[in-house]
């Protein structure tokens, strides 16, 4: 029978309309009947299952009432556009997820790290050393984060980014979202948040959950920012290409914040991965008015599963945090904090960064060089300021979204990035890409984009 997998036409004798309803419901929730698929006509279904037309009509009516199918006049019944996969059994959901992931051969969107860039054996030694500190592990961690790690972070961010702070100004948490939640609690009087440049979706969700009004603006649109707002900026990654905010624009942003009583959250992710210019000092290091909250994370520098982020609060907010901090539990692993502290003090993170920098620049150069030989002017690969990102310019009438879908159909995940002149723009990350598979990836991607 049309649209029904073979071997699934049998029904028991009792409550047949319920059984038919359950059968079609299962086929829909498991994805074997997809949105837009046409169901068999009432007569065809009745003949196939040896049922009365009334029984089939009753089952279809029940499916329609619950939104699984829709009736189209003079046409028949069709599976609705709603995604019901969340109703499938855990086994079916797992199977569907495995099938989906199996189709992805090259994930060039994920920010996952390179398995060869991180010394897991070395990290395990530091974790094992932390686990031997029995007495220390018998107590809850410090709410603000382990003091010795905060002290080590002070030294690190001062050396790397020029950040000026004391351990008492640092708050540690498991990820940037946790830090934003704390900031929302100690900035309750500020109701407006403006993201400069690309919007941070997870951060937006936290701000909105705390009742903040969220908007976006560009770095040349500061006049659109409400007085007294929180400004969320990533000066080391101001657009999807990883461009860096220049020194004069940083000074302009700080001046605007002072004149309009704004607080700036400086999310300094990716500041370590710059190849075409010397590192520009952090906003916090240029701030003489106490208006910048500096946020950093170790997930990108180590591996994503080590969820340790931190923020440096200006003195005024640090005092406010002291009043409310006791109401918050520490979310970062105490064991990992102890391990990271010694890892930092022994200089391994600095070595890790240098190693990653070399690997990322080698990967991006290799991909661009091979692409130039393969595609010439039809596909142009350009390295971005963030060393692991590559811009692809495709001479095509198709939109970047359409090209992204075509690549996905060939098992490659890429990111659409709009249009410029006669080119559609795409963005890929080589951070977690195995460079040994460069030629195969490029040939597969080229076939998807150019045919």
Q: What fold name goes in the CATH topology slot of the largest domain?
A: Aspartate Aminotransferase, domain 2
Find the CATH superfamily of the largest domain. Answer: Type I PLP-dependent aspartate aminotransferase-like (Major domain)
CATH class of the largest domain reads Alpha Beta
CATH architecture of the largest domain: 3-Layer(aba) Sandwich
Number of helices: 16
Structurally, how many domains make up the residues? 3
Shape assignment:
globular
Fraction of residues in β-strands: 15-25%
State the low-pLDDT regions, or none.
none
What is the number of E strands?
Answer: 15
The rounded Rg comes to 27 Å
CA(first)-CA(last) distance: 36 Å
Main sheet: strands, sense, barrel: 7 strands, mixed
Helix/strand/pairing class, anyone? Answer: alpha/beta
If you average the pLDDT, what whole number results? Answer: 86
- How are the strands of the largest sheet arranged? 4-10-9-8-7-5-6
């Amino acid at each position: 029978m049309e649209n029904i997998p073979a071997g699934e036409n049998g029904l028991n004798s009792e409550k047949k309309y319920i059984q038919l309803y359950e059968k079609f419901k299962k086929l829909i929730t498991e994805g074997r009947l997809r949105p837009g698929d046409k169901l068999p006509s009432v007569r065809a279904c009745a003949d196939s299952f040896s049922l009365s037309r009334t029984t089939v009509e009753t089952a279809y009516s029940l499916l329609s009432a619950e939104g699984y199918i829709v009736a189209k006049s003079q046409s028949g019944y069709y599976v609705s556009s709603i995604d019901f996969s969340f109703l499938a059994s855990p086994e079916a959901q797992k199977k569907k997820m495995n099938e989906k992931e199996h189709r992805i051969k090259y994930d060039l969107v994920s920010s996952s790290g390179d398995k060869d860039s991180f010394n897991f054996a070395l990290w395990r030694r530091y974790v094992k050393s932390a686990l031997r500190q029995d007495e220390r592990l018998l107590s809850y961690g410090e709410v603000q984060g382990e003091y010795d790690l905060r002290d080590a972070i002070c030294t690190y961010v001062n050396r790397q980014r020029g950040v000026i702070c004391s351990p008492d100004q640092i708050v540690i948490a498991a990820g940037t979202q946790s830090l934003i939640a704390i900031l929302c609690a100690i900035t309750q009087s500020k109701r407006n948040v403006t993201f400069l440049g690309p919007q941070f979706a997870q951060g937006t969700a936290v701000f909105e959950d705390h009742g903040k009004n969220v908007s976006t603006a560009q770095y040349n649109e500061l006049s659109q920012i409400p007085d007294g707002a929180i400004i969320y900026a990533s000066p080391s990654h101001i657009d999807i290409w990883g461009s860096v905010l220049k020194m004069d624009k940083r000074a302009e942003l700080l001046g605007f914040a002072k004149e309009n009583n704004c607080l700036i959250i400086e999310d300094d992710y990716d500041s370590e991965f710059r190849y075409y210019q010397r590192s520009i000092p952090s906003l916090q290091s240029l701030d003489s008015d106490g208006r910048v909250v500096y946020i950093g994370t170790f997930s990108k520098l180590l591996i994503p599963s080590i969820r340790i982020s931190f923020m440096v609060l200006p003195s005024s907010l640090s005092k406010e945090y002291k009043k409310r901090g006791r109401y918050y539990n520490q979310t970062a692993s105490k064991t990992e904090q102890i391990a990271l502290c010694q890892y930092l003090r022994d200089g391994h993170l600095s070595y890790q960064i240098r190693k990653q920098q070399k690997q990322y620049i080698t990967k991006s150069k290799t991909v661009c060089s091979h692409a130039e030989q393969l595609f010439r002017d039809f596909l142009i690969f350009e390295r971005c300021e963030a060393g692991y990102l590559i811009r692809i310019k495709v001479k095509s009438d198709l939109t970047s979204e359409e090209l992204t879908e075509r690549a996905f159909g060939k098992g490659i995940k890429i990111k659409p990035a709009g249009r410029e002149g006669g080119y559609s723009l795409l963005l890929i990350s080589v951070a977690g890409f195995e460079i040994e598979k460069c030629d195969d990836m490029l040939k597969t991607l080229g076939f998807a984009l150019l045919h």
